[in-house]
Amino acid sequence: MTLSDSQRVAIVGLGAVTPLGNDVPSSWETALAGRSGVALVTQFDTAEMKTQIAAEVKEFDPTQYMDRREARRTDRFLHLALAAAKEAVADSGLDMASQDPRRVGVLVGSAVGGIHVLIEQIDVLRTRGPRRVSPFAITGLMVNGAAGQIAIMLACVAPTWHWPRPAPPAAMLLARPPPLSAVVPPTS
Fold first, then answer.
1. 27 within 8 A of 16, measured Cβ to Cβ
2. What is the torsion angle, in degrees rounded to the nearest 10, for the CA atoms of residue 44, residue 82, residue 18 and residue 57?
3. What is the pLDDT along the chain (188 residues), one digit of tens a residue?
4. Is the full-model pTM beyond 0.70?
5. Are 183 and 9 in contact (CB under 8 A)?
6. How would you classify the pairing of strands 53-54 and 106-109?
């Protein structure tokens, strides 16, 4: 099958925030060294759980990627997505000032959105009542929020798209790009 220029997908840069490292080089180095990202859980109390290990992202500071106020208002999944996106854009060499923002879109794959916000706001609802639930709760837990926030960060206005699974199979994207997905066209 041959794809027309309007159907092609371009992967323009790499970005990663993983249990192996908080960027592509450290994740790759850890993987090549055969080291595991699995360790004792630090994000919550596991004293009453049978399993007390997980592959968590470690030593991640969201304020390296957004201001403190925005970090407080958003969920960790969004912090991780924005950090990986910033790295991918930097790796690509993409200069948004030289791009038509109508031709730059975002595709994000994530199985779930802001679980931390959901759990936190359920506790607020139970203990303090509905008037104390954050007005940012919905936007903090929407799984498609990452694609939207990345599009805002890049100031792109082409369609954004969320893949509701951990990651879109690259071969499938090449064979059948998502409808209306606008991915950065290769520049010459």
1. yes
2. -20
3. 455 656 555 657 889 999 999 999 999 999 999 999 999 999 889 999 999 999 999 999 999 999 999 898 889 999 999 999 999 989 988 888 888 888 888 888 777 888 888 899 999 999 999 999 988 888 788 888 888 889 999 898 888 877 766 555 444 444 444 444 444 434 43
4. yes
5. yes
6. unpaired
CA atoms 116, 122, 128, 134: torsion sign: positive
CATH 3.40.47.10 residue spans of the chain: 1-10+60-188
Superfamily of 1-10+60-188 according to CATH: Thiolase/Chalcone synthase (3.40.47.10)
Helix (H, G, I), strand (E, B) or coil at 21: strand
Helices (H) and strands (E) in the chain, counts: 7, 4
**Residue 52 and residue 40 in contact, taking contact as beta carbons nearer than 8 Å:** yes
Q: Determine the Cα–Cα distance for residues 62 and 80; give it in Å rounded to an integer.
A: 8
